[in-house]
Predict the structure.
Amino acid sequence: MNAHVLDGKAFAAKLRITIADHVAALQAGHGIVPGLAVVLVGEDPASQVYVRSKGKMTVEVGMRSFEHRLPDTTSEADLLGLIAQLNADPAVHGILVQLPLPGHLNSDLVINSIDPAKDVDGFHISNVGLLGTGQKAMVPCTPLGCLMLLRDHHGSLAGKHAVVIGRSNIVGKPMAQLLLGDSCTVTIAHSRTADLPAMVRQADIVVAAVGRARMVPGDWIKPGATVIDVGINRIVADDGSTSLVGDVDYDSCAAVAGAITPVPGGVGPMTIACLLANTVTACCRANG
Ligand code: GUN
């Protein structure tokens, strides 16, 4: 079998056009411009790339981008002070604090100091609770992007067995909640799961979010299953060149799967598009 490629790049581009239309209508009809504040503490190179790309796309869809780059020596009090300012700023509808934070900062404390209505990452404990109880929440962007690709491909997901590999708060756990909300039977697998290959072979849908390059080989995949690869791992070849690969071994998985997301160009672009969508949602809710 040759898997259908789930083109997240093209899907996200269409989504950004719809978002830009909404933004233009908000401005024309109500004089409101949605604003997204992104806070980066420290110099992590991967985070710098993500933050730059978020800022660029925010401006491209017509929204305001507020970037706050702080040194890695920033104190918790100073960071909390900045978040309090952003919470109170009516021009800021969404706040994202790029993770990971330097070790001396308490991420839970920082995330939970964001106004839940502006928490476009959906990481605040209130949003986690709302999502877990099936109420209206800000939904984390990466799992939301995965869900959109799955719904677009399958229509209904009801009754499908989804195996999510990875139990992070950012992807694995909220992904499981969203799939459950769409009536999948959900298994969360992780590094201590007994006989992971046998578990994954039962899945109609596999979501790999472990952060280990090419960890899932094709012989773990049930023929015809859908494979969503959340991993973005930079690897260095023998000749010193670098490339990005996912958490699944693309070639062997694509030979067995019914559908698969590529890396790059699969889940990654969806994450940023969903962040922009969440910011518009936050803006609309803030303005009734
Ligand atoms: N670091 C890696 N992914 C994310 C994300 O989705 N949001 C934030 N804030 N930080 C991240």
Observations:
- The two ends are 49 Å apart (CA to CA).
- The chain has a mean pLDDT of 97.
- The pocket of guanine is lined by residues 96-99, 121, 141-142, 170 (CB under 6 Å).
